[in-house]
Write a structure and sequence with these properties.
By secondary structure, the chain is an alpha/beta fold. It has two domains: 2-128 and 262-295, Rossmann fold (3-Layer(aba) Sandwich); 130-261, Response regulator (Rossmann fold, 3-Layer(aba) Sandwich). It contains ten helices and twelve strands. It has a six-stranded parallel beta sheet with strand order 2-1-3-4-5-11, with helices on both faces. Strands 7-6-8-9 form a four-stranded parallel beta sheet.
Amino acid sequence: MRIHALAAEYHYHPNRLTQSLMTGRSSTIGVLIPSVVTPYSSRMLAGILSIVEEKEYRVLIKETHGRPADTQVAIQMCIEQRVDGLLLDTGHLEAVPRKSIIELRSHQVVPVGLDATTFDADVDHVHTGENDLASQAVDYLLHLGHRSIAFIGRTIAGKFTGRAQYIAKAFQTRLLSPRNFIDVQHEPPYTHLPAENLLARLLAQSSPPTAIIAWEDPIAALLINAAAALGVRVPRDVSILGFGNLSFASLVTPKLTTFEQHPEQVGREAFVLFSKRAREQLGEKASTMEVIAIRPTLIIRESCGPPPK
């Protein structure tokens, strides 16, 4: 008690640099996200910060801008900064190379994947349950009576990947045709997405889709605006469903039916996984890699309804 009292009297603060030299741990964790201003990323970061502060860790934040090259630069910078762990949400569909994971681990850096990030090696991962997300989305529209459904999202070289892959699987198991899968080939924030042209092209078909699933809320919101410009009524003429439950989802007209993906929980669970691996490095028995899927929640608003008669 006397030592604590003297420390308080003389405003003593531990020297983190000295401690890190003695323990080999920096008490710093790196976080890779596409952009600090992206709503989903900022919410996930808030979840990470809420638990990191409790554990007295410092956070080193790097932006990838959704580009593989920037991801590699960020990984190298985090290694040079001697972070203890690295939480990775790259924001791109290309997998993080195996050699990068090996390099991280060779420097005693614990990697944990976030959200839709993929890896060419086994890595602990926390994400929204994409399979569950796709199944819930398709089943909800089927419940409303839709049988002709389109999907607008991203692919790699024309191949279904990530969320598109799970949506395609949900279509297949429910005997729905994937003929209206539209590859937008655009990155967030989708500033140049030709939403009016895409919607007009879909609805000009002899048997147009009565519902559209968008890759995420920004695309869904652009489609709602495009529908208004084209004189198409949502949901009377076509239903539109998004993913993310971002802040503007309740501000567009009509209000967007979407899925809450709980990014704050994703961030917190990722830090918990990192902490577990860090303890194992100090001598605790190692366990197998873990993948934690956070169950999404359907938020029913106004943009989805029964198909037109």
